[in-house]
Amino acid sequence: MYNHFKSISLSHRNATLTIREQLALNEAEAKSMMLRLKDFFDVSDVLVVSTCNRTEIYYSASTDLNEEIIKMLLIQKGVSDLESFKGYFERFSEGQSAVQHLFQVATGLQSQVVGDMQIPNQIKHAYQWSADLNMAGPFLHRLLHTIFFANKRVAQETFFRDGAASISYAAVELLEGLMPNPKVLIVGLGEIGADVCRNLAQRETTEVTIVNRSRDKADKLAEELGFRVADFSDIEAEISGADIIVSSIVRDEPFFTKEMMVRLRGMSFKYFVDLSVPRSVSPEVEEIPGVMLYTIDSIRSKADEALHRRLEAVPQVREIIDEAVLEFNDWSKEMIVSPTIQKLKGALEQIRKEELTRFTKNLSDSELEKVERITTSMMQKILKLPVLQLKAACKRGEAETLIDVLNDLFNLEKQPEKH
């Protein structure tokens, strides 16, 4: 099973946001993709991960289906230029590389912002979709739970998850510290603005309105996140009603000026958070009583400090991953001998029951119970050494020889597998 595990990956490492957006999958699309894979191919242990930074499909199959799955994904998303888009994908056709990649993705080593704290939850959602469709077998269950445990170790034993290492996440942490339950106005939905919105969506107590020159883009994001949308033409009225204004609009000179603030007389206390380069909020707005301004430089400084701590923790995170992968590898190797162990147990149990039937007809219930206990204990002790030897042989890569010997000795080929 281990060597059958494979994956395809399209991520920020090799594709622009424009490309990634075209191939992103929501929950319904991800589940549809999984069902189509099941209908068209002999696959198991299917996991579909789709975030703003990556779309990945993991699966187990005896043959390499990466090219076929890439083509199926592109067709499902309505891409006409198949050949060009195929070049954006990474392929992992070996079990070891696919497992290692999933570990690195799930812990945040492969994230655009190293140590991204959202990725473990996104992997858990993908795992739940797989379980809902009965497409997560023993291999995927064990793999994901090993990853979740490794993630817990990363959080507890390292600084890899400390602080806000992205501009957007640091901005949201700043907003949370300014006032309880603020009314937030997001102006501009470029990459940073959209990221701020997605981070804010995790906070249920924040009331968010989004404004963008392109209304279609605002409507699409609002539908995804459940936010309110306002027209750009109503910007001044929206400023008046907001407590915090986050700006990430792109222009050559400030959009939010002192003159605009003077026009909006009678405003309550306002915070401006300017995430634009060049600035979209004039420093002079702070000359208006009750207006405070935070610039991208102060936020970036905080994010850079957190990122530095995270990068220092990377070697420790890799050690945790290596230990977890080694443990999972040992379990995967033992999976090879599991059917033989089950058959051996079945063969010995059959002999035990046949002999009990022959010699216990005249025993009382209490006597029969004692004999059951004694013979079951004897069988377990007889099994213990072969099982230990088989598991040790797995780690040495010598399991096949012992499997053949046990098959011959006990004629196990005729025994049904028991799980």
From TrEMBL:
GO molecular function ontology, one term from the record: NADP binding
Enzyme Commission number, as recorded: 1.2.1.70
GO-annotated biological processes: protoporphyrinogen IX biosynthetic process from glutamate
Keywords, alphabetical: NADP, Oxidoreductase, Porphyrin biosynthesis
TM region(s), chain numbering: none
Keyword field contains Nucleus: no
Superkingdom in the source lineage: Bacteria
Functional pathway: Porphyrin-containing compound metabolism; protoporphyrin-IX biosynthesis; 5-aminolevulinate from L-glutamyl-tRNA(Glu): step 1/2
Family to which this protein belongs: Belongs to the glutamyl-tRNA reductase family.
The protein's name: Glutamyl-tRNA reductase
Source species of the chain: Dyadobacter chenwenxiniae
